[in-house]
Amino acid sequence: MRPKKLKVEKRELSKRKGFKFTSWCKEDHKEPIFGVAFNPYNHPDHPPVFATVGSNRVTIYECTENSINVIQSYSDPCTEEIFYTVCWVYSGTDDGKIETMVAIAGMRGLIRVVSLKQLKNLFTLMGCGDSINELKLHPKDNNLLLSASKDNSLRLWNLKTRRCILIFGGLEGHRDEVLSCDFDLNASYVLSCGMDHSVKMWSLESDDVKDIIQSSYTYNEEKPFPVLNKHFPVFSTRNIHRNYVDCVRWFGNFVLSKSCENKIMCWKPNLSVKKSSDIPDQSEVLHSFEYGNCDIWYMRFAVSPNFDAIAAGNQIGKVFLWDISEEPGKPAILSHQKCSTAIRQVCFSPDSTIMVAVSDDSSMWRWDKEVRPSTSS
User: Fold this and answer.
1) DSSP assignment of 30-85
2) Main-chain dihedrals φ then ψ at residue 218, nearest 5 degrees
């Protein structure tokens, strides 16, 4: 691993409803940056740290005052690899500390777990039948990692024992590429969406799922681990979107999902109403967050960790920001004259004060929340 030279510009533009432009930089591989993720386990007294993936590389950055500084970079041994997604993971050390790592995956369907301390790939998870579009870490068990794949399935992996333990897909699973996935905060359900225009919900509360997760820690027989296949979601709908659904997130008990239709939908699934099959498919649409020039797929939005904002980029380099701390209105539009290519993903820092957007021209753009002085009565 070695840092790459970056071109950095620092300049503040006009203030835009709560966030101001701070800085931008560009990676030298000249390929799209598909994914970005802040380290949620970073000490709050330390500068925020985030990772990007583009080409066959993952790069780690630090947000200092009005700047983006590269810390280190890892390039895959295969020059043909293209990483699409990055997820921060961690494990406990012998001295009681936490070691943070990144899990990265993409075109070749391999999950690399890279140690930032040892500057090397620790191990590789293999088993997906095609490219991996998204990775998510279990919110309560740091050893469980979820992947969404082009092979029409989701897989749950145990990082400690380095094995696939559960596959969501099959008879009533997705009929095309799975593009996005998410855990709810209680780790009771998994959401998935994909090219088949559907959004599905899978339960982690059934006895067989709980048993297979528990046995994945203790299984030590010579024969392969008996992977559990879950063919039936607890909810499935194609009524929300009419095109590829490329991003889905939990928002409390509600669902936020996005398609190539210039809008993000907020809706509530009804698990008790069944219409045409044994799987519930009814839902109630609550709100539509509309914006323009975003009719291409694989463009992922973000919800701030404190749940007061939603941000999404479009294909001409603009970021739309909705204040959802009160009833949503029109979005603020964040832009820069040099940012003109598709924003592939947006991400907030753990304290929701910094937002980073990554784009097709290898660039990333930082926006900081403005701290307005309080007025005395």
Assistant:
1) -S-EEEEEE-TTS-TTSPPEEEEEETTEEEEEEEETTEEEEEEEEE-S-TT--EEE
2) -115, -10
Query: What distance lies between CA 55 and its chain's CA centroid?
Result: 17
Q: What are phi and psi of 207, to 5 degrees?
A: -60, -40
| Exposure on the CB side of residue 205, measured as CA atoms within 13 A | 10
Residue 375 has pLDDT above 60, yes or no: no
Considering only residues 203 and 10, tell me which one the structure prediction assigns the higher pLDDT. Answer: 203
User: From residue 90, how far is each of 44, 98, 286 by CA, in Å?
Assistant: 16, 7, 36
Give the global pTM: 0.92
| 354 vs 302: CA distance, rounded Å | 12
Do residues 124 and 137 make contact, with C-beta atoms less than 8 angstroms apart? Answer: no
Instruction: Report residue 90 as tokens.
Output: 């961690």
Cα–Cα distance between 31 and 50 in angstroms, integer? Answer: 19
The confidence band for 97, taking pLDDT boundaries of 50, 70 and 90, is confident
- Taking only the tens place, the pLDDT of each residue in 155-189 is 999 999 999 999 999 999 999 999 999 999 999 99
Chain centroid to Cα 281, Å, comes to 25
- Are 164 and 157 contacting, i.e. CB atoms less than 8 angstroms apart? yes
